[in-house]
Design a protein that fits this description.
By secondary structure, this protein is an alpha+beta fold. It has helices at about 140-155, 160-175, 180-195, 240-250, 255-270, 280-285; strands at about 55-70, 75-80, 85-90, 110-115, 120-130, 215-220, 225-230, 240.
Length: about 290
């Protein structure tokens, strides 16, 4: 597999100063001389995503989202980190039988990771298992793979989402403790769309700018937000109460569970551009999530 380097270091050659003219410089008379204005203090440069390339990162909390073979003995891993977002790393020698990384780079296991590199595809230098989380089993394991597929397909590389990372950790814990999977997944889907900036406020009508009413039926425009239904609307219809419940993360009502499932399926399909979610189809077949 060939990897395109997106952020190559470009070293600008220093410009040589032009020689001064060989002539006598006569200073201005004191009465006419204008004092130079003091230079304004320099503001520190704000950190940018590009400036993280080429730096060493150590001890970063992370989870493996996906991995695949690279050459004979290595892996390319998609890592979800708390402070750097989704990063791509080469784990050199990770497929060797006695590699220390071989048993560490597993999905749903909290890691402390370190890496170095100048391009978008950097090199993993260390990964240690942190522990403290129960393993996912059976249906919870499939739900975990569904979360990972959402993150891989919806998160841009090197775009930090620390709150989403914390929500991911909480979601894995909830699944491991057998909390109701449909409710856990709806909360995470909603948090994901919020954190990536593509989710509208479900509590306010886009046409009237008034608060959503619990007894009114709405549709949700994926780009704008909720508005009252129309006869020709092809989009899922949801009660105002469902929208308000979703904002409160209250999924106890059976109607809210059913309508939020259809709504989130529709919104995710829109923002994925029609790309299929393989794990979702498996979950639908097994549990009708």
């Amino acid at each position: 597999m060939s990897t395109t380097t997106l952020d190559a270091d470009i070293a600008a050659a220093p410009q040589q100063a032009a020689p001064e003219a060989e002539r006598e410089v006569v200073p201005a008379p004191a009465a006419l001389a204008t004092p130079a204005a003091p230079a304004p203090p320099k503001r520190p440069r704000a950190p940018s995503r590009e400036r993280t390339f080429g730096t060493k990162v150590a001890g970063q909390p992370a989870f493996v989202l996906h991995s695949y073979p690279y050459k004979e003995t290595s892996l390319i891993i998609d890592l979800f980190t708390r402070d750097f977002g989704r990063v791509a790393l080469i784990a050199k020698g990770a497929k060797r039988p006695h590699s220390q990384l071989r048993g560490v780079l597993q999905t749903f296991q909290p890691l402390s990771s370190s890496w170095v590199g100048k391009s978008e595809l950097r090199t993993l230098t260390e990964a240690e298992w942190v522990g403290g989380m129960l393993p996912l089993e059976k249906t919870a394991l499939l739900c975990g793979f569904y979360l990972n597929e959402l993150l891989v397909k919806l998160l841009a590389r090197d775009d930090a989402h620390p709150r989403l990372f914390d929500h991911y950790v909480a979601t894995l814990n909830q699944l491991a403790h057998n909390e109701p999977a449909p409710i856990v997944l709806r909360k995470f889907e909603r948090a994901l769309l919020k954190e990536t900036g593509v989710s509208a406020d479900l509590t306010r009508c886009t046409e009237t700018r008034r608060a959503v009413q619990a007894d009114v039926v709405y549709v949700v425009d994926p780009e704008r937000g909720p508005r009252p239904e129309r006869a020709a609307d092809p989009w899922p219809r949801v009660a105002g109460k469902t929208l308000l419940d979703m904002e409160r993360e209250d999924y106890q009502d059976a109607a809210t569970q059913a309508q939020s499932k259809q709504l989130m399926r529709f919104l995710l399909a829109h923002h994925l551009g029609g790309a299929p979610l393989n794990t979702r189809q498996i979950l639908i077949d097994l549990m009708q999530l």
